[in-house]
User: Which sequence fits this backbone?
C-alpha cells in the first residue's frame, strides 16, 4: 500500500482523531510537566548536594568516560591500551612481586613435609627480605606498636588458642568469654548505653559492612525502605545500597548543608568520621546527629582510625568535640582494636546503641539440613587466636597504659603539625585532632616532595583530589619524630634552592591517574592486586 494511501485510510483517521482528543492532550501535557518537574528536582538535588563546580567536574568526567567507552572499541585504541597495560603489568609485578633467586619457590605441596628446622630457616629468610623500615618508625601508619614484650605475650595467647573457633562457644568457652569481655571493655570507652551491644569483626572494613547491613535491614523492617541510600563505598557496592558522596567544607569536614540536601525518603543512615583517614579531621558529629534525629535515620561514626586515640585523648590532656554515644543521634560506632588498641592485626569492634539494631547484623539459616545456623558477622568460622590476642593486649596495657600511649602519639602529631606550619610553602589541611597530619605545598609538587622523602627512607601516604601527603603518628614514628621534621625541613630547603629532583615515580603515578579515565586507573589497580598473588 502506498504511504499516502496508508496515511489517509480510515484506521489512520481514527488514530489521528484519538491523538487529537483534548483530554488526551491534557494528559500528555500533565505527564510532560511531571517529567520536567522530576528532572529539575533531581538536578536541583544534585546541585544542592554537590554544588555547581563539582557537578560540572563530574559531568565532564562522565562525558569523558562515555567517550572513552566508545573510543576503546576502535582497534587502534585497543592496541594502544593493551600495549600500555602490558608495560604497566611488567613494571608493577617487578615492584610488587620481585624475584628472589636465593629463595626456592613452592608451587605444589612438598612430597615429604619439611622438618622444623627447615621451616624455621625459610621463615627467617622470608622475614629478612628487603622491606620498608617500619620497625624504625619510617612508615606512615600500618604498624602501630613494636613493643617486644606485648608481641611476646600476644604470641603466647595466639599459640594457646590457635585451634579455637568462636563459632563453637560450647567447645571454646574461654574464647567466648574473652570476646564478650573485649566488646564490653571497648564499649565502655565509647559510652555505649546499657541498651546497646557490640560484636568483634576482622577489621574496620567488616565493622562498617556490618553496620550498613544492620541499618539496611532495620530500615527495611521499620520504614519499608527497599532502595536504601547511604555513603560507604565498599559496603554499598557489596550490599546494593545507593552511594551518596557529599562534599567537604574548607576544614576538610563533611558539609552539613550538603548532607541535609542529600537526605530523602530512601536514606537509611548518615556517616561521619572521628577521625577520617586522609586528613585526620573530625566531622561535626553533633551536627550530623541533629539531622539523623530530625529525619529518623541512623548515624554511624567511623572511629576505625581514631580508635583508642579518640577514646583516650581527653584523659591524655587533649580536648575533643563529642563524637560517641553521648551524642543522642549516634546509632553505631566502629573502632579498630588492631590500630591504637595495639592488638594483633585482624580485630575490630562494631558497637550499637540498641541490641535490636545489632540483631539486624546477624545471619540466620533456620532450615539448613546441617542444623540451625546463625553467625554474628560475615565469617562463619573465625580465628579464636585473634580474639585471645585482642583480649591480651587490652588487659596488658590497661587504662593507664593507653592514656600514656595517647599522650605520646598525640604529642608527636602536634609537634609535626606545628613544624609544618612553620616551613615556607607548606600548609596543613584542616584541623587535625588526633594522629594524622595532611599537608600540601602551594609552590612545589607535593608528590616530588614525597619522592624526595622516600629517598631518605620515609614512606608517607599520598592523597589525591586534592593532592597531598599525610603522616600518621604511631608509637614507632613518634620515637623518630625529630628525625622526620629535620628531613622534611631539609628536603623543602632543597626545593627552595632548586637542587631537588623533580617528576619522580609518585608524581608520575598520580599525574597520570589525574589525566586518564577512571576505568583505566581501576584496571591498573586490578593488575596491582593480581601481582600480590603472583608466586
Assistant:
Amino acid at each position: 500500500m502506498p504511504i499516502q494511501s496508508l496515511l489517509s485510510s480510515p484506521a489512520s483517521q481514527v488514530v489521528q482523531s484519538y491523538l487529537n482528543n483534548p483530554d488526551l492532550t491534557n494528559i500528555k501535557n500533565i505527564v510532560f510537566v511531571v517529567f520536567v518537574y522530576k528532572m529539575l528536582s533531581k538536578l536541583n538535588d544534585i546541585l544542592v548536594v554537590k554544588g555547581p563546580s563539582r557537578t560540572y567536574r563530574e559531568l565532564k568526567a562522565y562525558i569523558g568516560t562515555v567517550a572513552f567507552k566508545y573510543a576503546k572499541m576502535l582497534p587502534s585504541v585497543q592496541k594502544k591500551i593493551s600495549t600500555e597495560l602490558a608495560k604497566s603489568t611488567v613494571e608493577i609485578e617487578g615492584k610488587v612481586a620481585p624475584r628472589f633467586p636465593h629463595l626456592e619457590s613452592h608451587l605444589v605441596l612438598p612430597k615429604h613435609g619439611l622438618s622444623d628446622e627447615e621451616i624455621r630457616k625459610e621463615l627467617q629468610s622470608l622475614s629478612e627480605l628487603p622491606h620498608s623500615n617500619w620497625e624504625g618508625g619510617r612508615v606512615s601508619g600500618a604498624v602501630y606498636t613494636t613493643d617486644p614484650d606485648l608481641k611476646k605475650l600476644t604470641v603466647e595467647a595466639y599459640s594457646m588458642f590457635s585451634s579455637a573457633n568462636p563459632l563453637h562457644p560450647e567447645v571454646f568457652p574461654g574464647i567466648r568469654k574473652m570476646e564478650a569481655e573485649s566488646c564490653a571493655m571497648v564499649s565502655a570507652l565509647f559510652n555505649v548505653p546499657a541498651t546497646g551491644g557490640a560484636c568483634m569483626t576482622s577489621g574496620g572494613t567488616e565493622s562498617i559492612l556490618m553496620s550498613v547491613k544492620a541499618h539496611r535491614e532495620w530500615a527495611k523492617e521499620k520504614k519499608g525502605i527497599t532502595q536504601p541510600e547511604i555513603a560507604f563505598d565498599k559496603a554499598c557496592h557489596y550490599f546494593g545500597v545507593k552511594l551518596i558522596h557529599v562534599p567537604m567544607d574548607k576544614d576538610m569536614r563533611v558539609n552539613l548543608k550538603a548532607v541535609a540536601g542529600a537526605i530523602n525518603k530512601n536514606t537509611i543512615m548518615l556517616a561521619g568520621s572521628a577521625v577520617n583517614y586522609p586528613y585526620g579531621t573530625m566531622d561535626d558529629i553533633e551536627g550530623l546527629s541533629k539531622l539523623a534525629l530530625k529525619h529518623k535515620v541512623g548515624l554511624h561514626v567511623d572511629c576505625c582510625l581514631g580508635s583508642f586515640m579518640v577514646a583516650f585523648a581527653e584523659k591524655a590532656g587533649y580536648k575533643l568535640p563529642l563524637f560517641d554515644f553521648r551524642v543522642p543521634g549516634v546509632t553505631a560506632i566502629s573502632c579498630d582494636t588492631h590500630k591504637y588498641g595495639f592488638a594483633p592485626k585482624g580485630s575490630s569492634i562494631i558497637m550499637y546503641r540498641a541490641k535490636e539494631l545489632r540483631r539486624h547484623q546477624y545471619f540466620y539459616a533456620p532450615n539448613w539440613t546441617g542444623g540451625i545456623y546463625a553467625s554474628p558477622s560475615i565469617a562463619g568460622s573465625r580465628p579464636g587466636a585473634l580474639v585471645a590476642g585482642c583480649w591480651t593486649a587490652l588487659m596488658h596495657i590497661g587504662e593507664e597504659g593507653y592514656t600514656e600511649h595517647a599522650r605520646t602519639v598525640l604529642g608527636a602529631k602536634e609537634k609535626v603539625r606545628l613544624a609544618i606550619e612553620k616551613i615556607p610553602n607548606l600548609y596543613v589541611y584542616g584541623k587535625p585532632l588526633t594522629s594524622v597530619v595532611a599537608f600540601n605545598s602551594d609552590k612545589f609538587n607535593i608528590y616530588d616532595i614525597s619522592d624526595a622523602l622516600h629517598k631518605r627512607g620515609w614512606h608517607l601516604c599520598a592523597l589525591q583530589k586534592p593532592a597531598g601527603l599525610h603522616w600518621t603518628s604511631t608509637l614507632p614514628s613518634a620515637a623518630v619524630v625529630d628525625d622526620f621534621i629535620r628531613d622534611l625541613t631539609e628536603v623543602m630547603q632543597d626545593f627552595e634552592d632548586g637542587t631537588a629532583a623533580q617528576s619522580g615515580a609518585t608524581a608520575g603515578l598520580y599525574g597520570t591517574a589525574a589525566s586518564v579515565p577512571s576505568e583505566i586507573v581501576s584496571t591498573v589497580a586490578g593488575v596491582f592486586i593480581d601481582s600480590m598473588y603472583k608466586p
About this structure: The mean pLDDT is 89. DSSP finds 19 helices and 13 strands in the chain. The radius of gyration is 28 Å. Residues 74 and 80 are 10 Å apart (CA to CA).
